[in-house]
Design a protein that fits this description.
The chain is mostly helical and 179 residues long. The protein has 2 domains: 122 residues, Orthogonal Bundle (Multidrug-efflux Transporter Regulator, Chain: A, Domain 2), CATH 1.10.1660.10; 51 residues. Strands 1-3-2 form a 3-stranded antiparallel beta sheet. It is elongated.
Amino acid sequence: MVGTSREQDTVGRQLKAKSTRDAEWGDEDLDADLPAAGMASWPLSDEHETDALMGIAEVCERYGVSPRALRFYETKGLLAPRRINGTRVYNRDDRARLRRILRAKSLGMPLSEIKHYLDMYGRHGEGRIQQLTYVIEKTDAAIADLEAKRAEIDATLAELRAINAHSRSVLSAKRKSGG
């Protein structure tokens, strides 16, 4: 357990109020813009412990990140865990932000864009439509870019296959003619 019993009671009341607020705001779709396909080993959601506080060691183990990485995300303004008696504690929202950070990083998004995306959410979820619009714009652009690269790769592969086939036939002919 983290902190004194008085602090724990206060944190417990805050978390209970927050979970009620989350239900009112419809935050059940916190990870709706994070598809499960190709996910790393870290969990997509914290369904089993929605309001549980986690220490830095638990978060590191659960999400496969180092304490140094978590502190780095703090210095960049991506995470802001609460502190109880000087110890960082991560609630459901902190872990949801971390999942988003890790997912966006795995897709090659720079930290400045990740911060912009996270900051759109606002204090009470008022920016959710803006977030989703941003995700759609970014993924549309990434898909178009990757499809263009795939077309280039396909053209290069076709050319290399033609060169390879031609070289094999010339080599075969040279071997048959003796040189």
